[in-house]
Structures are given as C-alpha cells and as structure tokens.
Write the structure tokens for this entry.
Amino acid sequence: MLLAPPGTIETQLGIPRPGMSCCYDRLMSEAEFRFYEELNDHLPPGRRKRSFVHQFSGRTPVAELILALGVPLLEVELILVNGDSVAGDFLVSDGDRVSVYPVFEAFDITPLVRLRPGPLRRIRFVVDEDLSRLGRLLHCHGFDTVCFEDNRESGAHTATREGRIVLTRKASRLQEHGVTHGLLVRAGDPQEQLDEVMQRLHLIGGRTDARGS
C-alpha cells in the first residue's frame, strides 16, 4: 500500500498543517482605517480617534467594511481612500488607507462628496416623536422643523420629498428607504440635543449662512 507524503491529504482537503497559519493569514487583506469626529462614538474605545488595521477577505466595497465596523452609512458624508474621494462601492484592496468623515451640512464639499447628492443648502428638519421638544427649540431658532407625528405620511417620505434632515434616537430610522440625510441624536436633555445638532452640523454662529436660500 502506498502512503501519501505527510500533509498531502490535509492540503487537498484544505486543512492547514501546523506551521501553515502564516500562509492562510496572507489570504486576508488589511486596510488602515481612521474615523473622524462623532463617527468614533460607534467604535470600541481602542479604535476611537486613531488609525487601526482591519482585516477582510479579498477586495471588498468600502461601504460594506464601514458597516461591518459598526458605523451607519447615513452619518458618513465623505470617504477618502489613499487621499482620493470614492463612492461606497469602491473596492478596498490590501494596503489601502481609508479615512471616513461625518456630515458637513454647513459646507459645500460637492466636488468631493460621493455618497449622497450633496449638502442640503436649506437646512430643514423632521424629528422623531420623542424629540418633539428638540423640534420646538429648533423652530424657535428659526429652522423649518416638523415632527413625524405631525404628518400622516412617513417621516422618511417627508424627508425625501421636502429635502429634510431626519433627527432621531433610533438607528433603524436612518436605515429607512429614501432617507439621505440624518443624524442619530445622542444627548437626552432637549437643550443638550439642540447644542449637539448645532455643533455637529456646524450651525453655531453661522445659522443664516448655513440655511442658504
């Protein structure tokens, strides 16, 4: 009876032999990621506000990798890979450097934006039912604001039809079909919520300019 050389059967069956782990590691690609500002809130502490390496299989769409890392795409405005702006379907390769930025509603970065049509030049909001007090504060500050409960149609449809930014505390709301601009509000107190929205959308001290016409 002929005996197969050691390791031959394991190799044919795809079973790694001792000492072969390094070969299998090479099948995985690695990219360096860096998330900015409030996008870090979705990351574990060890990955916040710093670059880190993420492993993935083959060439993978950058949007898929961002979601896999726990960051909602609706809060992402700009993705740079090796310094170039890319769309969500860009295939990330081994050794790429990926920088991910949050929304910039107050600034026109249209030449760079690839994930959505561009910033809303007139800032208008639709807020979730449990953010009604925030909605009233925004209205008092001169912003056109409606509440989900004020509309018979869905808030997502209102946001799409009227070009409004969805403000919610429910991550699932940002995944509704048709929603292109939205923020997940983290603060619990209405005044703190107002401050958060103003800061994250860069509206402080420039509300009139940010709203446009």
In short: Residues 124-211 form one domain.
